[in-house]
Write a structure and sequence with these properties.
By secondary structure, the protein is α+β, with helices and mostly antiparallel strands. It has 2 domains: 39 residues; 115 residues, Immunoglobulins (Immunoglobulin-like), CATH 2.60.40. The chain is 33% helix and 32% strand. It is built from 4 helices and 8 strands. An 8-stranded antiparallel beta sheet has the order 1-2-5-4-3-6-7-8, with no helix packed on it. The radius of gyration is 27 Å and the shape is elongated. 10% of the residues are buried.
């Protein structure tokens, strides 16, 4: 009877095995997560954080001036085509020059693309666009109104090639 008890006794070697297994799993999970985090997105939002911080007040003032115009941007994405136009506070179409749309993913840079939109006879701007389903950030810069150009930045959710 005493032999059975001795064979099932928890020894220091058992404790060592438990500790190595426990910390081995933690280290393996952390290394896996670190690999996926660094391989999917650089984490860089701006090239130089100091310069970006110095421009904050200027960009805030530009945003307030743009909001004071009362313009309403209209964006449509359907059937592989992007359509964009600006409407002023009186409901009239705002004439614009060069209009460029930059699409980025919030998580990685592999799908980023920049598209120059062409003016249409009805005053809108459009271009063909191939975007996968999921989340996108689009920044549209239009040479319209006072200097600096009108900027429209928004987050989009696409399903089946159309806005949802």
């Amino acid at each position: 009877m005493t032999e059975n008890i001795d064979r099932r006794q928890f020894t220091g070697w058992h404790m060592l095995a438990v500790m190595v297994a426990f910390f081995g799993v933690i280290i393996a999970v952390n290394l896996t997560m670190a690999f996926f985090a660094t391989s999917s997105w650089t984490g860089i939002l701006v090239d130089n954080v100091y310069v970006a911080s110095q421009q904050f007040n200027e960009k805030s003032a530009e945003g307030r001036a743009q909001a004071a115009l009362g313009w309403q941007p209209e964006l449509e994405i359907e059937d592989g085509a992007l359509r964009y136009r600006l409407i002023d506070k009186d409901g009239a179409l705002v004439p614009a020059g060069t209009t460029v749309a930059k699409f980025t993913r919030p998580t990685h840079t592999a799908d980023d693309q920049e598209i120059t939109l062409s003016p249409q006879p009805d005053g809108a701007f459009s271009a063909p666009v191939e975007l996968g389903d999921g989340l996108w950030i689009v920044e549209i810069v239009s040479e319209a109104g006072p200097n600096p150009p009108y900027r429209d930045r928004r987050r989009l959710n696409l399903r089946g090639g159309a806005l949802r």
